[in-house]
Amino acid sequence: MKKRNVLLGILGLSIAGITAYSAQTLAYQGDPTTTGPSYTPERHEQMQKAFKSNDYETWKGLMVGKGRVIEVINEDNFGKFSEMHTLMEEGKVDEANALREELGLGQGKKQGSRDGQGYGNGQGKGHQMN
Questions:
Q1: Residue 64 region by backbone torsions, left for phi larger than 0, else alpha for psi between -120 and 50, else beta
Q2: Nearest Cα to 12, choosing from 33, 28, 34?
Q3: For residue 31, what are the β-bridge partners?
Q4: In this structure, which of 8, 88, 110, 112 has its CB flanked by the most CB atoms within 10 Å?
Q5: Distance CA 129, CA 114 (A)
Q6: Other CB atoms within 10 Å distance of the CB of residue 19
Q7: What is the DSSP string of 6-17?
Q8: pTM beyond 0.70, yes or no
Q9: pLDDT above 90: residue 5
Q10: What percent of the chain has a predicted confidence (pLDDT) above 70?
């Protein structure tokens, strides 16, 4: 159960991150019914077309300056990224997570989680070192 919660947390953060820095087409903060602050209908339509036609060059052009995802997704793995997008839209979270893991998106710990040790604001106070 803990592994599933971690995966769902990673998925939520990944979706929020991709959305905040991309076309807002996957979901905004984990909610596919909500658009992000930089959403425009024109860009959304362009992104949808790029995903449906597996048009990496169009997607890449729309993503310039939009975050880390462009460092991970390339022409060779864009088809899987498009498939992940479709699965998310269909609500197939487990399948999308499998592709997300395969692509190397959203891997590792949630930022600030530190294995349940908070955000580090205590600067080690109260944390016993062995």
A1: beta
A2: 28
A3: 28
A4: 88
A5: 15
A6: 26
A7: HHHHHHHHHHHH
A8: no
A9: no
A10: 57
